[in-house]
Design brief:
The chain has 2 domains: 3-121, 3-Layer(aba) Sandwich (Rossmann fold); 134-220, Arc Repressor Mutant, subunit A (Orthogonal Bundle). The two termini are 27 Å apart. The protein is of the alpha/beta class. The relative contact order is 0.10. The protein has 8 helices and 10 strands. Strand 4, helix 4 and strand 5 form a beta-alpha-beta unit. One of its GO terms (cellular component) is cytosol. This is Stage 0 sporulation protein A homolog.
């Protein structure tokens, strides 16, 4: 069972998160004192950390840097700080993801699931090969049969979501919400255009049938 450590000083939010994550099947620990957070991380060895920015004493940014000095545990910032500079700084100092409050529960759970999958792979550069297709997050490319296609940021995130839900039907609304929450502004028409462009690139690679459209339901690979 994956263990998640919550570092959040607002008791109401902390208890809400503990209940939510416990009900989702995770083993949950929560810091209630914030003077020895790095030591707590070392002692508990969590699989993922939910980290607020506004904390008593050292803020979440400094704590993230402290944790990164000895641990590669995925860190998801969950905070009310909602500027692009806050997000950029959090990711620059070692955060793996950034979600602002109030959070969307399905999106939060999906992002936690993705980070935990990344952590188990021991790297974040590539996803496992699927049906002969390889998606490289580091290079932003799709590879198949010795050929390679470059993806835009939006295309990369769409394929990332489909790859991490391989074998499942992914509703269009889930893709739209995932990209909106990733600060990529997209609507249903834009989604259709991006899917069309991805399919063109897949056809050029000789894998035009990788993405199936399930009419009235969504997409599946």
């Amino acid at each position: 069972m994956d263990k998640i450590l919550i570092i959040e000083d607002e008791e109401l939010i902390r208890e809400e998160l503990k209940t939510l994550l416990s009900n989702a099947g995770y083993l949950v620990e929560a810091a209630e004192e914030f003077g020895n957070v790095a030591e707590l991380v070392g002692a508990l060895a969590p699989d993922l950390i939910l980290l607020d920015v506004n904390l008593p004493g050292r803020d979440g940014y400094h704590l993230c840097a402290d944790i990164r000095s000895f641990s590669d545990t995925p860190i998801l910032f969950l905070t009310g700080r909602d500027t692009s500079m806050d997000e950029l700084y959090a990711l620059t100092i070692g955060g793996d993801d950034y979600i602002t409050k109030p959070y969307n529960v399905p999106i939060l759970l999906a992002r936690i699931k993705l980070l935990l999958k990344r952590g188990k792979r021991g790297e974040q550069a590539e996803l496992p090969e699927y049906k002969g297709m390889r998606l490289s997050l580091a290079a932003g490319t799709l590879s198949f049969g010795g050929r390679e296609a470059e993806l835009t940021k939006t295309e990369l995130k769409l394929m990332y979501y489909l790859f991490t839900h391989a074998g499942e039907i992914v509703p269009r609304l889930d893709l739209v919400e995932f990209l909106w929450d990733s600060q990529i502004h997209i609507d249903d028409n834009t989604l259709s255009v991006n899917m069309m462009r991805i399919r063109e690139k897949l056809c050029a690679l000789g894998a035009g049938n990788l993405i199936q459209t399930k009419r009235g339901m969504g997409y599946k690979i």
